[in-house]
UniProtKB/TrEMBL annotation:
Catalyzes the last common step of the biosynthesis of aromatic amino acids, produced via the shikimic acid pathway. Pfam families: Chorismate_synt. Belongs to the chorismate synthase family. It catalyses: 5-O-(1-carboxyvinyl)-3-phosphoshikimate = chorismate + phosphate. Coiled coil: none annotated. It comes from Volvox africanus. This is Chorismate synthase. Keywords: Amino-acid biosynthesis, Aromatic amino acid biosynthesis, Lyase.
């Protein structure tokens, strides 16, 4: 999104005495709230504003989607789910404003809004003056010279409501086209790691406990660890693993727009993220080539497969049809009830003990956020791939895998 215009005459620059020259041409681009090229999502709203939501452009017409399907995803990320999440109570009811009629998309922009109801802006009075350490308070002031103090504004995790709502639409598109499944779970809280069979875990396994870890023994230890820091007014971090099953082959682009690069950008755009790995990740740096290479073979259906999956489902920036496996690291929540040294907006050193309602650990609610961002990336890549590579017949295309010709047969 961009708009253009000209400043006529000589006008004083806001906030200083500098003059703007006559007929200076301005180009204003949407700044940081839109993701995607063909499947484009813009999120809007602040944590303590009237509401939050998204506008999705580029969704193909005739895709079945309902508010109930979107609500199912929003219910997984909403606050107040358990003792280890923020106590803020929000129903987070999705309302589709446009782009869908009788449960079917029109091909026009889809607008979805969720109204905010349980704001307690008075909890942020101290934070209107003092910056929370490691939060976006200071950097928003550095950039904009103004910010929404209550709830953190756009830096709040409530911004991700729009992402999750849009992700529900993207998931449905991927399911209809390729029977693609996207599942994430908490694989680590602090130093407690899980042992999960990545090929066989299910959504029911993930949702079987409040921390969203399919390993029940590890899950209880994670819950205990989160409760321990919560009772001290502290917070802790963790990791989320996401697995994509039955991803179409060939999604992504070479060089700058590699699929893993798009996934990394999407994951690191989520609040509190500090790390990203795909496949072997940093562990691969310690291997030799013969250990790391994924050898090919032909399976019973004539498909080209790999015997191992250290590539994490992506080779050369393109999906290879194996499970895409990524891991995302989340830092401890910045807003804590422990007194910390900081500075004020006026440049005075002070101490702050933050109030408000916050997650002692973000990873249980980050699971649907990670899934949604993966879905947005893949939906966008799917549309780009089809537009470039699937319009002309593939019968004479080079390659040993006959299933590639048929993977979009229903389109």
């Amino acid at each position: 999104m961009q708009s253009t215009g000209r400043l006529q005459g000589r006008q004083a620059h806001a906030g200083c005495g500098r003059q703007v020259s006559r007929n200076l041409r301005l180009i204003v681009r949407a700044a940081g709230s839109t993701y995607g090229t063909n499947f484009r999502v813009t999120t809007f709203g602040e944590s303590h504003g009237k509401g939050v939501g998204c506008v999705i452009d580029g969704v193909p017409p005739r895709l079945p989607i309902t508010e109930d399907e979107i609500q199912l995803e929003l219910d997984r990320r909403k606050p107040g789910q358990s003792i280890i999440t923020t106590p803020r109570k929000e129903d987070d009811i999705a309302e589709i404003l446009s782009g869908v009629v009788d449960g079917v998309t029109l091909g026009t922009p889809i607008a979805i809004v969720v109204r905010n109801k349980d704001q307690k802006s008075q909890d942020y009075s101290e934070m209107s003056v003092a910056y929370r350490p490691s939060h976006a308070d200071a950097t928003y002031d550095f950039k904009y010279g103004i910010r929404a103090v209550a709830g953190g504004g756009r830096s709040s995790a409530r911004e991700t409501i729009g992402r999750v709502a849009a992700g529900a639409v993207a998931k449905k598109l991927l399911k209809v086209i390729g029977d693609t499944e996207i599942l994430a779970f908490v694989n680590k809280v602090r130093d407690i790691e899980s042992n999960v069979d990545l090929a066989n875990f299910t959504m029911a396994d993930v949702e079987s406990n409040i921390v969203r870890c399919p390993d029940q023994e590890a899950a209880q230890k994670m819950i205990d660890a989160i409760n321990e820091v919560r009772t001290r007014g502290e917070s802790c971090g963790g990791e989320v693993t996401c697995v994509v099953r039955r991803c179409p082959k060939g999604l992504g682009s070479p060089v700058f727009d590699k699929l893993e690069a798009e996934l990394a950008k999407a994951m690191l755009s989520l609040p509190a993220t500090k790390g990203f790995e795909i496949g072997s990740g940093f562990r691969g740096a310690a291997m030799v080539g013969s250990e790391h290479n994924d050898e090919f073979y032909i399976d019973e259906q004539g498909r080209v497969r790999t015997r191992t999956n250290r590539s994490g489902g992506v080779q050369g920036g393109l999906s290879n049809g194996e499970d895409i496996v990524i891991r995302v690291a989340f830092k401890p929540t910045s807003t804590i009830g422990i007194k910390q040294r900081t500075v004020t907006r006026e440049g005075q050193e002070t101490e702050l003990r933050a109030r408000g309602r916050h997650d002692p650990c973000v990873v249980p609610r980050a699971v649907p956020m990670v899934e949604s961002m993966v879905a947005l990336v893949l939906a966008d890549q799917l549309l780009q791939h089809y537009a470039q590579c699937e319009l002309l017949p593939r019968e004479d295309a080079v390659g040993p895998d006959p299933t590639v010709v048929k993977q979009f047969a229903r389109v």
